[in-house]
Amino acid sequence: MDERLSSLINDYLRAVRTALTLMQKSGIPLPHSSSEWVDTDLSHISSLNDGIDYLKHGNGCWVDLPDGGVDFDFGRRGETSGLDAWRLARFAKKRQETYGFSTDKDLYECFNDAVGKNLVVPLDTALHRLANQSVEYVSSIDSRSEGDLLPHREQDKVLTLQIHYFYAADLMLKHYDSLVSKLDKNKKLSRNDEINFRIYLTSWLGFLAVTCEGYKDLNMYLLLNNERPVNYQELIPKCNKLSSSIKKHYHDLRKFRNNVFHLRTSTDDTVAFLSPEADRLSWARSIHRDLKSFFSDYRVLCECHYMFNGRRSEGEFGQRGK
Fold it and tell me: For the whole prediction, is pTM greater than 0.85?
């Protein structure tokens, strides 16, 4: 690629990251899509930190950085590495630099040549991106202060485990318990309810098994001690209790999970797990209850950390402006 264009693009993308980090630190929730950005209400944020001006527009934003303003659009799926010749030319002018281009026409021709050689490829709509670099998303923006051990909420594996797997288990358990109550009251279930009863029961236990597996794989005790702020160590007693309790029937639950999410060749593991004599359902309920309590306490610590460390946009309260 032409060295002038390469230098301009690298400076532009670096400025976009700086702007996004500043926006995040200023309490602006970064979107997961361009349509989400369009619906984001920022009327309560008149300027960014240090009085830096910004202007929300369409699918993107203009930020008046100290060394020159930068204008960018979010991609359809929250991509942040999109660019075009018009924005590059405007960026250069705001920085009062030419990057070696004699005119805007010269820059446009160079950009079009890079597109023709597939050095710059389409991202979506009118945006392009560098072909030799991975697409970047808002989730890669890290506005943490130096020494802040709590990952961004999008990159926190504990929250991922809770939101994507435990919440599914919790929903299935609620539906299952509703049908249990219905069965106790009416002494029977309709054919459809019988089918749903089985689906809710097996799905609950399947997602519970995935949650337990993730909990074990994260080495939660070491994670809380070494990879989180010191106050997260107050969760260690619950963590140790959970680790000990999960071990009791984990392998049986894992085999049950395999029969739920994979085509089974035998029902032996399913029948064995649900055997009344083993009373594994009581154990599963106990594990579920303890996981729910652990995740709830972890989330409270996260919300407090976001609030007191300039990361309000990551918290539940910070999302209300959307």
Answer: no
Where are the domains positioned within the chain? Answer: 3-140, 153-321
Helix (H) or strand (E) holding 290: helix 280-308
Crossing angle between the packed helical segments 167-186 and 280-308, to the nearest 10 degrees? 140
Count of beta carbons in the 10 Å neighbourhood of residue 116: 9
| Residue 316 backbone class (left: φ over 0; alpha: ψ -120 to 50; beta: rest) | alpha
Matching residue, tokens 């301009």: 8
Q: What does the pLDDT look like over 208-255, one tens digit per residue? A: 999 999 999 999 999 999 999 999 999 999 999 999 999 999 999 999
Q: Which of 218, 215, 219, 234 is nearest to 165 (CA)?
A: 215
Neighbours of 193 (CB within 10 A): 16
H helix intervals, 100-235: 104-116, 157-161, 167-186, 191-217, 220-226
Higher pLDDT, 186 or 265: 186
Integer Cα distance of 229 and 157 in angstroms: 15
